[in-house]
Structure formats: structure tokens, C-alpha cells
Amino acid sequence: MNRGLTATKLRAVLITALIVIIAAASAGFYFGSQYLYNFAIETSKATINATSSNGESAELQKLQQSLAAQQAVIAKTNALFATDSTYQTQVVTDINRYAAAAGLPTPSYSFNNSTTGSSMGGRSSSQKGGLGRSNTSFTVSLPSSVSYNSMLTFLSGIDQNLPKLEVTSIDLKRDTKQGNVTTPALSIQVVVR
After folding, report:
1. Contact 164, 81 (CB under 8 A)
2. Residue 13 host element (H or E)
3. What is the percent of the chain where pLDDT is above 70?
4. Which segments within the chain are labelled E, that is strand?
5. In CATH, which of 3.40.1390.10, 3.30.70.60, 3.40.50.920, 2.60.120.10 is domain 81-192?
6. pTM over 0.85
């Protein structure tokens, strides 16, 4: 018998090959479409993240520009309060400058020692606003009689000072000279943080 390839066997082989090819194509199409679907989802997420990142970075840039524009306000706000370690030097320098500008002699200073043992000055017992700020007072004395107008100029400079200084009491006495006053004691309070 001739065991060669007959038409029936060839047809069966071709049908089997066709079924295998169709099954492989279907499986390839299914897995390919799943791969493309997942790729599309990842691309969509990346696009959304990029869009939101651009929005966030644009918002961050706006905030940085706003902060840069407000640097003068920030610096002035920081200058409102003296620090515990430097307030004495700072107020002495400022008050000496105001005295010189008003034509007054150099004043003398008396910084009170606090009851807590700090050598930096007397503290009031009340905290301002719970922000770690306290009032510290000191006394300024001018050695001689001065003109009333010069005293007003001096007090105006103190009032406009940064860090904020507040004259809490003043002892003015009229001098025998026309328009002159003496001030043995001028109590000033500074807010220290």
C-alpha cells in the first residue's frame, strides 16, 4: 500500500492548519488588544498627571512670584520685633541716631534686670497674643535741658522706630530758659520675641 498523501489527508491537514492559524490569530488579536488597552490607560494617566503637574507648577510659580513681590512686606514685618539677644544694642543705636538728628546730646540708658535672672532687661508678665512676644522696658535720660521742638522731633523718631518702641512714661520739666525742657526719665517699652 502506498502510504502517501491522499486528498482526504491533505484536506484534514489543511483544515487543522487553518483552525490553528485562526486560533493563533484570535489569541494574538485578543492579547494585542489587551496590550493596547492597557497602554492607552497608562498614556491617559500620564497625560492627566502631566496636565495636573503643569497646573501645579504654574500655581507654584505664581506663589513664588507673589512671595518675591511681598519681600518688602516680609522684611518690614520681621523688623517690627526685636530679638532677645540684640534688642539692647539695636535700641541704643536707634535712639542715639534720633537724638543726633534732633540735635540732642547723647542720652544715657538704664536697662532693668528681670526677676527671672535674665540680664537682657525687665520683662512684663503678660505675653502678647501667645506668639512668644513680651514687652521689655528701659529708661532713657538726657543729660541737660533741650528745646521743646527738639524733644518732639526725638519722640517722633522713637514713635516711628522699627522694632516698635513705645514711650510708656515721660517726665518733662520746664527749664528756666525760654522753650527748653528737661527730662530726667523717659521710660520706653520694646516688644521682644
Report:
1. yes
2. helix 7-69
3. 88
4. 108-111, 122-128, 133-141, 146-147, 165-174, 180-192
5. 3.30.70.60
6. no
